[in-house]
Amino acid sequence: MNPSAQSVVAKPQALACPNCGGPVERRGFGYSITAVCPQCLTVLDASSPQLQILQKVEGAQNRRTPLIPLGSRGTLRGATYEVIGFQARAVEEDGETFEWEEYLLFNPYKGFRYLSQYDGHWNFITPLEAMPRSSQSRGQFPVFYDGRVYKHFSGGPATTTFVLGEFPWRVKTGDTVDTHDYVAPPYVLSAEITAGEINWSQGEYVPGSAIWKAFTLTGSAPPARGIYLNQPSPMAGNVGGIWRAFALMTAMLVALAIFFATFSRQETVFHNSYSYASGSTAEPSFVTPDFNLTGRPATLELGVNTDLDNNWTYFNFALVNEDTGQGYDFGREVSYYHGADSDGPWDEGSRGSTVMLPSVAPGKYYLRVEPEMDSGAVAYNLTLRHDVPNYTWFLIAFALLLIPPVWYTIRARGFETQRWMNSDHSPAGIDPAIADAFAGDN
């Protein structure tokens, strides 16, 4: 491109409206076929200097004010475009009308581009010369373009409800075309079908703030409401990365658990068998022989195994350091019941139990034991193992690591669910209120 050509500013050509006599500016050079009088909204044939009337609009009840005034110039995708046309279009579904706005942009070197706006959501739209590839082998009839798969979102007749400015095609209010939208956020492919002809265009989602900055508009862009068909999910790019980070952290956690399991001595320092019967005159409490704990402070595991059968026993324990007199008091209930009913055999509880005492210092110890039960007798054995790895903290760490990826996945799926609630392929059985709650205030 000749750099000096970029500095040339095209001046609009002013003609008179044959209906009201008001001035009609032509900004699209010789490309414009249709122009609309800004005073009386009469649709004119702009292909000749005579500006013949194509459609008269009775009254001004349908007049709309574009958010971006005609004649505004802005820089998008590295090129300067001028807004030369504006139209409002609408589709009706289930008795409800959905209306959006389209702005026609013109650059003498780049040609025509479009901006669309619906509920504060904007798209920069480029007409396509190549046809997307289509397939009907999948459930939602996707199309393929530029290495992306676009899922069918919605389709139906779109009616032009208001026009202003000029256009390179015949346009007037009341015109209707069949439309179909296919999405691969942040992109959307749109097909317009009329008289057997299909015109394709590709839109890319653009924040309203970027549009306001490009055209140096005053104030702020209207806030976006809801979730639009090709609005990029704020979580989509994070979910995969968070799951990869979770996998890496889990691998490190497993390696750490293996390290502790490998270098833990898991030494049995005491083992003996005992019995107890309720109602016995003998003193139920007793102390075990001394045993030594050596090495570093480490976990001490006490295992209790019984022959209980449809009964329970509660054990009061005290681990006492013979040299210092320091004691660790704790208890454990062991119960086991079983039987059969109309649903078949059942059981609950267990005949054994395990207690972990963290970071017990080395020294000479003994264990004081006091069993109790309502009735019956029990035979049991006690086993003490020193320097045993405690995997509870690893499980807690794993659960905490799992929270972020699960949360982001739920949020991402909620966002997508709310997006597709507005499509022709709405997820069956999903309450929109639930989808809104998961998607939050995005």
**Low-confidence sequence ranges:** 1-9, 429-442
Number of helices: 5
Number of structural units classed as domains: 3
What is the helical fraction, as a range of percent? 10-25%
Strand percent estimate: over 45%
Strand order of the largest sheet: 7-8-9-10-16-15-14-13
Largest sheet: 8 strands, antiparallel, barrel
Task: Give the tally of β-strands.
Answer: 26
* Rg, alpha carbons: 39 Å
The computed structural class is alpha+beta
Structural overview:
With 442 residues, the protein is an alpha+beta fold. It folds into three domains: 10-231, no CATH class; 237-258 and 394-439, no CATH class; 265-388, Sandwich (Jelly Rolls), CATH 2.60.120.380. Helices cover 17% and strands 46% of the residues. It contains five helices and 26 strands. It has helices at residues 3-6, 208-214, 236-263, 392-420, 432-439; strands at 13-16, 23-26, 34-36, 43-45, 52-55, 73-76, 79-93, 96-107, 111-118, 121-127, 133-134, 143-145, 148-167, 176-184, 187-194, 197-206, 267-277, 286-287, 291-293, 298-306, 311-321, 327-341, 344-349, 352-360, 363-372, 377-386. The strands form four sheets. It has an eight-stranded antiparallel barrel with strand order 7-8-9-10-16-15-14-13. A hairpin with a 2-residue loop joins strand 12 and strand 13. Helix 3 runs antiparallel to helix 4 (392-420) and helix 4 packs across helix 5 (432-439). It is rod-shaped. The chain starts with a helix and ends with a helix. The model is unreliable at 1-9 and 429-442 (pLDDT under 50).
